[in-house]
């Protein structure tokens, strides 16, 4: 309201001068009062302007942080079929705008507040202005002339001004925070996030890092937007010139037709000032109203993310009551299970039935696409069967508390991923409750056969296999002759340099070395003496390993297993199939044969045929 009150005081001052000229009499006390009020308004206004900038920055950081955490939470709670739903993906993508995560919602909130404020100012100023203009000759002409420079200034607002900037990130907490965010949002990690029940850990760690970093939790792009303002360009010089137009026009009119001059020349300044501020407000409202409804919609949809229902419903039967019995393994039964992936037409499994006793070692074999991995995914309850039922220790898997189920299973998927975090945390997240236990992490790396691989990397366990998007170095539009900055080599010109920077993060590990790291994470899950793992699932764990590494791995796995149930999926015969208590041979999504290696060979069916093809190569 201050600009309007200030305007009213200006009008009063003007009236006093006019009345004094007419009556040759001045009420000094009244003049002092009005002048003091006017000055106080001006001071108040300046104070508010400064406070507004400071408050807005703090508020910006807080709201941004809040929304970012909200979005990470919204992502981490989603299960696989829900996350893969294209409608849900569209909903999530809406909140990954160009200026970082929370932009749309934050812009919406600020937009709504500013618009409201502008509307209030315009209404009050308009009434004061109309009053003022009515009392002045030529007031309307002068008002029109005053709006021209404002229009020029704002029509140039969108013109692109090229800037040079550089960002190099070395803060470990910052890199880790954005690594956790990427882990929660990138689809390739979803299976491991859900199966390892990593959601709560990620959200908690993300929030504590945000708290630790405070205002520095903002990404570089967000910081740049908040702190670096545009430099005035040639447009601002034009604006300065144009703002003199009204006075020049009136000077000419004073010379040519003095009788048309306004009563008081003092009024010119007041009118110019009020019209400027009025036009500015109207223009601001016009610009903000354009995106307001869109932005408000975006805030609404941000909160709607919390309402997305997971397709895999939680059960209420506790599974971890008798943890002692879990160490003897978990019995599995598939009863007439058929399964179609949510968006597929064909069945991945058709009417599959089998039983695996507690503590057995089972190997599922079959050709590509026969459904081996799908069986493991259903056991981790990443999806629910389309038809039929799965029982664990005689209990329907759908009635079990999901967190309990996930805590009792360790799984290594065939298409495992590496998280955009340090190697230590990549392994540590096998068991989020001990994610920072260095001894256990080293032990897990040893069991996974990854120690040598890690030690040869310059940063060892602190190495990032892939740096999070927001923590990559950025050098944009720097002078061509400049070739180093902050001690780093510069690759000039924006986007291209970012791609190159990505590649430099690539540590160049081989497929087998990557697989050893993934295995270490699975071992990590089983190391803690209080862990309740009763079932170990491995999908082609040795696909990328050399024969010696494979032999060692199976040795370690057998020792680790104790009496737990272990299920493998494999194409290879030998080590595994020979020691298996049960082999399931599946073909075209159906279980065809089951039994031990010798029994299935004696049967002379599909399994025997597949075995003979591989064995013949060595005869
Ligand atoms: N996410 C998915 N969406 C749709 N269809 C899928 C998905 N994952 C697998 N399938 C399909 O389900 C079927 C069974 O796949 P699955 O991965 O279980 O086979 P597999 O026996 O493990 O194969 P491989 O030996 O190649 O690992 C295949 O036809 C496959 O194309």
UniProtKB/TrEMBL annotation:
Region (Disordered): 492-511
Pfam families reported for this sequence: ABC_tran
InterPro entries noted in UniProt: AAA+_ATPase, ABC_transporter-like_ATP-bd, ABC_transporter-like_CS, P-loop_NTPase, Type_1_exporter
Keywords: ATP-binding, Hydrolase, Nucleotide-binding, Signal
GO molecular function terms listed in the Swiss-Prot or TrEMBL record: ATP binding; ATP hydrolysis activity; ATPase-coupled transmembrane transporter activity
Domain ABC transporter: 332-613
PROSITE patterns assigned to the protein according to its UniProt record, in alphabetical order: ABC_TRANSPORTER_1, ABC_TRANSPORTER_2
Superkingdom field: Eukaryota
Family statement: Belongs to the ABC transporter superfamily. ABCB family. Heavy Metal importer (TC 3.A.1.210) subfamily.
Stated name of the protein: p-loop containing nucleoside triphosphate hydrolase protein
